[in-house]
Prior knowledge:
With 413 residues, the protein is an alpha/beta fold.
Amino acid sequence: MHIYFLLIRLAALMGNKKAQLLLEGQANTLRLLRKAPPEMWKDCIWFHAASVGEFEQARPIIEEIRREKLETRIILTFFSPSGYEMRKNYDKADGVFYLPFATRRNAKEFLDLVQPKMAIFVKYEFWPAYLKELHKRAIPTYIISAIFRKSQLFFQPWGKPYRNLLHCFTKLFVQDENSKQLLAQFGIENVEVTGDTRFDRVSAIAQVPKALPLLEQFRVESLEFRDVQKFKVLIAGSTWPEDEQLLARYIEERPDVKLVLVPHEIDDEHMHRIFEIFKGKFVRYTEATPMNISHTRVLVVNTMGLLSSIYRYADVAYIGGGFGAGIHNTIEAAVYGIPVLFGPKHEHFREAKGLIAAGAAYGIRNYEELRNRLDKAFDNQTTMGSKAKAYVESECGATESVLKSLKLKVKRS
Length: 413
């Protein structure tokens, strides 16, 4: 762990902006908490998420606590700069901070200052120093939307020290029965299968999506399609260059398809790559007007925070990341009742496998598969889309299950 922190410090010294933000933010957390009145955070509920994706799993729990009007403060911490920077003004938490580096000294001081009555970690967050200190102080500690696989470090012959950390949790709320059975093999019985709270989150967003008039116009009209009776709209979310190369080729071959591209990164370097890949034949969302989007088949959304609402304008969705570290959020598209496609690295994503099994999604490994399966998805849009929506609906309910188990839900007459 200390080596990891040293590497981050080295990266910061070499000019890495994310590493610099991380170091500065973590140093500020303890300084800010020391300045607060001694009793300010006492008996709060502490939520910790690695980044934005994990925050979206914590969010339904936090917002239901607020809806229940429970008299408790909520403190939210992030590990990554991307998570903190995007959600530092989140108004349902009383305080949003970086998590101080997980040393024993920092863990002790953080818990001395915050004094939570409960700690809730999300999915993959296992910080030894914090878990051990929480356990030592007998503070109820939980993990939500967790998922376990036999390949993880906990279950290796040399993984016992890490596996012992799982005994620090008062209860582990896991996504599926396979996780529960795996944990039971190693004597970990304080487990409850509740599912993934992200399904509740995407369902809530889909009920009140943002109105995006330019996207609506892009979907229904175009001067580029004077000779085409009907065109289709493909929305590609959280894309990387590997995804964009394939999509550009497909759009070139299918003149009856329009593309809304929402890249995962919108920095200058990535936008330049997109310009090269699409040969400049697109309109940026920040420069879009009712006139210029009528003359293009490709709209590039170069702003953050719109993707979950943009998907509702799609006939088919493509989810990026599958040619890199792993695919991004598939269900925020599927909830709108549209077919979903993604790259090959989806084997560790339960929801992706669930959508494929439901007949609502395709995985692809190369351009030939992308072309063939996109064509099939457009041709079978209604059938696949209804299966996608049904799958998401069948997985909702994790939030209520967790709240009931934690006794954070008011019994209503």
